[in-house]
């Protein structure tokens, strides 16, 4: 009886130690999985860059893809298109890209304005508050087209609470603006600014907003530690 008891205890202990992964093994597995995701994203980035005159930095693209995949899984976006705006760049640069993830091509790369209280040539301050006249960072779903004071405009729904969730009530939309042009930059040494809207060149506005309307992903980036710490889509 004693022999059988100790034999049973030994076999139970052996079974538990043999099947329960060690913490180091678990961490290693998670690390390898993460490397696999990064490698896949890097491969997609390299393929797109190979046939594109311009691309955002990889770290910005990677963040956009992370949020895009989460939102696709949640059903909050439907199209395989990412509109990416990098507000770390000068407003004199073409800092908006529209990327077709299905065909892995850049469809547009153009100028885009930031809010007048976000900064002059460079955007440095962001807000979700009404009447702030500042841009808001983070992930959005594009909405419907309507005709407003700027002509055809595209409504935006901010998908991150406390970060850009007031976009619709603030009337933060994509619209055309004459101050988004190379001529304005030549005259003023910087692009014109909006009341918080990501405003587009007048010549491209109609075709761009018709392309990305109705539940595609918009990501507005800036290397703000406050944003990245608060964003659940990037955590």
UniProtKB/TrEMBL annotation:
InterPro entries: YkuD_2 (IPR032676)
Ranges in a coiled coil: none
Protein keywords: Signal
UniProt keyword Signal present: yes
Extent of the signal sequence: 1-18
PANTHER family according to UniProt: HYPOTHETICAL EXPORTED PROTEIN (PTHR38477), MUREIN L,D-TRANSPEPTIDASE CATALYTIC DOMAIN FAMILY PROTEIN (PTHR38477:SF1)
Protein's recorded name: Murein L,D-transpeptidase catalytic domain family protein
